[in-house]
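Field guide to reading this record: the first block holds the primary sequence, the second block holds the structure written as discrete tokens, and the final block holds curator observations. Each block starts with its own label. This record concerns DUF2795 domain-containing protein, catalogued under organism Amycolatopsis japonica.

BLOCK 1 — SEQUENCE
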Amino acid sequence: MAGTDPRPYLTEARYPCGRDELLRAAAAAGAGDEVLGPLGALPARDYADGDGVWDAVCACDGASIHDTAKEAP
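BLOCK 2 — STRUCTURE
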């Protein structure tokens, strides 16, 4: 499991929207780190709806940006 389902915290998000709007909406709804962390790790693109956000969170599988970035030699 990729973490806590963020959709209950995104009811006030105005779709389509990017990661910053998702984080704003979730924080305003009282989401904790278990929701905000995975949302912050999402690719910076527009998401059509909450289901698309959940799919992206699951695909990310909780990997941090440092886990997926290539280190410079």
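BLOCK 3 — OBSERVATIONS
The CA atoms of residues 25 and 60 lie 20 Å apart.
The mean pLDDT is 84.
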